[in-house]
Amino acid sequence: MRNGSRNVFPAVFYWEEMDAVSRFNKRRWLTMKTTKQKRLFMLVPVWLLLFGLLLWAGTASAGSNPLHVAVKKGNGISVYTASSGSTKAGILYNGYDNELSLDQTNGRYECYLTGNYSVWIDLKKSSQIPEPEWHDGMDNDQWDADYAEWKKNLPCDIFLAEIIEDDSPVYSTPQNKHVLVRHAKGTLVRVCGEFGNDYLVEAYSAGFVAKNAVRKVSDLTTEQRDFPFIYDKLPVQTVYASEKEPVYFTTSANGYNEQSTYYGYTENTEVTVLRDLGDWVQLEYGMFVEKRFLDPEGAHSYPTAWVKCEGVLDRLNVRYSADKDAVSHAKLCSGIPVHVISQSDQWAVIFFTGPNGGYRLTGCVMKEYLSFDGKNIEQSGITQVRLKQDLGGDERGVRFYEDGEYAGLPAGTLLNVFGVVPPNEQPFGHDRNLSVRDGGRPLYRDLEKRCAGACEYGNRHLCQGQLRGPDADGTRSGSQGAVPGEGKDEGGGPPARGNLDNREI
Questions:
Q1: For 278-309, what is each residue's pLDDT tens digit?
Q2: Are the C-beta atoms of residues 399 and 359 closer than 8 Å to each other?
Q3: Gap between the Cα atoms of 198 and 480, Å rounded
Q4: Cα-flanking dihedrals φ and ψ of residue 80, to 5°?
Q5: Model-level pTM?
Q6: Quick check: helix, strand or coil at residue 282?
């Protein structure tokens, strides 16, 4: 699992943005750092037995292999470039947490420090101070005392530092020239290890910076090692957001980055400010937001760009990270307007929603398939379809299913299909259409046939015209329900405008 950047859960990205606090604390939840979490964990087998889900529990629990660096001598653990341990890569400091691969090779486990850089670790040597164990006869007060004493005595060599020059690059690997983000002067980072002339640092995301690019601010205790706990009594301000003008946090304070936090807000939200960085602020979880979003009278719009594909059947992959091998969690037709949160040389972090809000889609796209002036957009893959049957909705009225519980879309509703959510993001293995009503809000439409229903995927007479073509960035992925003999035989996406106007599906 590639989890060095702390936010790589591709399977959840086609759902709307998760709560910032819960996503940031995902690592701490998995490692069960608090007493409350310990107690809850102990009750899980009982709950699962009641519901007959022990098999599921065994599968889920097998997915976590936490790393907590805590050694009795020295400031951390040596890590290696390969499982053989022949070449030392660097040192991870005491206090560093992450997750390891589940299977060991040559007695070592692989650990991803960033999205595309991993090292190999001897788990027994890296965790020499085990957590206290619960035993029969122990009460909660005794457990609390034992855990507090254990945590107080844990070594922590992670330290707090600040970036000393504007536009300082953060690289994906040590001694590498691929820049993930550029940090503004004064940005606070946690230094978690050293790799030759580079430090492994974390602000919100992880990466490598030259040692001479940062200045130490202070040591950190075990309790302080995560951003929300570094300082007390920080100022609280309000981020002003709405359904029409959502606000997204970023991973740097200058607009140059190719990593998304996926934290979007559609209502006014209080945030704790860690540091003032001029036109930006750094928040307590290490993320960043422009100051204009803290001003109720400020300009709250993002730059607009338009998807630009060469062919009428092409779609642009919206990926969960800036990598052509990363999972595509949606595909957008040419001509669709998107809003640019940040960008690097080759990638843009974007979100899509309607002029009045509605379904929101966020991710990374290749910049060469965007038009920033709205010109030279030759084709539009959008098509119109008309529902054969009523579809129920969700509470917000942005997702629609056969068995939706709330008021939905009546039969006969005319929809513009502007993209798809591909099978690799779906639990049932079928595309879902992303649509919008004329003059309305974007919506997410489930087209899987699970009972007598509106849209029977794989049935030719109900799915005619689901033509297939290449994705805009050159990769291919199949689409279910295509009409044999029509269109190209690679890729997956909605049909071209004009082929299926007003066709029922």
A1: 999 999 888 999 999 999 999 999 999 999 88
A2: yes
A3: 47
A4: -130, 155
A5: 0.74
A6: strand
Whether 131 and 148 have beta carbons less than 8 Å apart is answered as no
Residues, the chain: 505
Q: What percent of the chain has pLDDT over 70?
A: 69
Tally Cβ neighbours within 10 Å of residue 462: 18
Element (H, E) at 313: none
Rounded to an integer, what distance in angstroms lies between the CA atom of residue 273 and that of residue 60? 36
Q: Strand order in 236-239's β-sheet?
A: 236-239, 269-277, 280-283, 288-290
**Dihedral sign (CA 372, 376, 381, 382):** positive
Q: Indicate the DSSP class of residue 367.
A: G
Q: Which residues make beta-bridge pairs with 256?
A: 343
Q: Quote the pLDDT of residue 91.
A: 98
Neighbours of 46 (CB within 10 A): 8
pLDDT, one tens digit per residue, over 250-274 is 999 988 998 888 888 999 999 999 9
Nearest to 72 by CA among 10, 19, 124: 124
DSSP E strands in 132-187: the ranges are 159-163, 168-171, 179-183
DSSP helix/strand/coil, 38: helix
Q: Rounded CA gap, 505 and 227, in Å?
A: 50
**CA 264/CA 362 separation, integer angstroms:** 9
Task: Strands of 356-493 (E only): list them.
Answer: 357-366, 370-371, 383-386, 391-393, 399-401, 406-409, 414-421, 432-437, 442-445
Across the chain, what does the average pLDDT equal?
Answer: 74
Residue 154 CB contacts under 8 Å (≥ 6 apart), including other chains: 70, 94, 95, 129, 222
- pLDDT at res. 467: 30
User: For residue 132, which amino acid is it?
Assistant: P
Whole-angstrom CA distances from 158 to 131, 192, 203, 476 are 19, 5, 13, 43
Instruction: Write down the residue that tokens 């890569």 correspond to.
Output: 89
- Compute the distance between CA of residue 15 and CA of residue 447 in angstroms, rounded to an integer: 16
236-275 burial code (b ≥16 CB/10 A, e <16): ebebbbeeebbbbbbbbbbbbbbbbbbbbbbeeeebbbbb
